Amino acid sequence: MEVRRFAGRTDVPGIVRAHGRAWRAAYDGLLSAAAIEDAVAVEPTEADVERWLEGLRKSDAVLVAAGARVVGFADVRWSEGTKPFVGDDEAGLKAIYVDPDRWESGVGTALLSAGLDALPDSVGRLRLEVLADNDRARRFYEIRGFERTGSRTVELAGERYPAVVYALEIGADTVG
User: Fold this and answer.
1) 97 CA to centre of own chain
2) In Å, how far from its chain's centre is CA 28?
3) pTM for this model (two decimals)
4) Residue 158, in any domain of the structure
5) HEC letters along the chain
6) Residue 63 — φ and ψ, nearest 5°?
7) CA end-to-end span of the chain
């Protein structure tokens, strides 16, 4: 498996599949079935591919973990399209998803490391949000040095959920 930059349209179906499978596995029991169904596709249609392609083109860096197929991706943004809690000299980790068959195999860490490597020198902190009840994701980030900096509410499929905001100071000992 290698982690590389997003290659465009050919990567999108695999990204959508990894995202859909990860969403279903990670959020089952945390989100309503309607929220999960509304947000993800496991087998992307052409319309899904177009929508995702348009969204990913807005990113500053999309990293893909792939071998024979795409098994995960990370979307890092530091210019347009960041969340309101991301400051001027910061970047946001908009998404990082790994196919559940590859969880705990190092793919997520490799994607995070590549995302950190892609950041410009002017970025001093990476921020993200995680659903408050997503213990697996929270552990992943905390083990890698992220610290809780706040909380907020996110809306998914018309439903509101508590979220935790994390930040990682970028420095010599940062993951990566």
Assistant:
1) 5
2) 17
3) 0.92
4) no
5) CEEEECCCHHHHHHHHHHHHHHHHHHHECCECHHHHHHHCCCCCCHHHHHHHHHHHCCCCEEEEEECCCEEEEEEEECECECCCCCCCCEEEEEEEEECHHHCCCCHHHHHHHHHHHHCCCCCCEEEEEEECCCHHHHHHHHHCCCEEEEEEEEEECCEEEEEEEEEEECCCCCCC
6) -110, 140
7) 17
- Closest-CA residue to 126 (of 134, 114, 136): 114
- Tens digits of per-residue pLDDT, 136-163? 999 999 999 999 999 999 998 888 999 9
**Assigned domain for 171 exists:** no
Number of domains the chain contains:
1
Closest-CA residue to 103 (of 4, 175, 18): 18
* Assigned token pair, 95: 């998404």
pLDDT, tens digit, for every residue of 88-142? 999 999 999 999 999 999 999 999 999 999 999 999 999 999 999 999 999 999 9
* Residue 151 within a domain: no
Q: Confirm whether 72 is domain-assigned.
A: yes
Instruction: Please state, as a whole number, how many other Cβ atoms lie within 10 Å of the Cβ of residue 105.
Output: 15
Q: What is the CATH number of the domain that holds 44?
A: 3.40.630.30
The residues, any chain, with a CB within 8 Å of residue 45's CB and separated by 6 or more, are none
* Cα–Cα–Cα angle for 47, 163, 70, rounded to 5 degrees: 40
Range of the domain at 73: 2-123
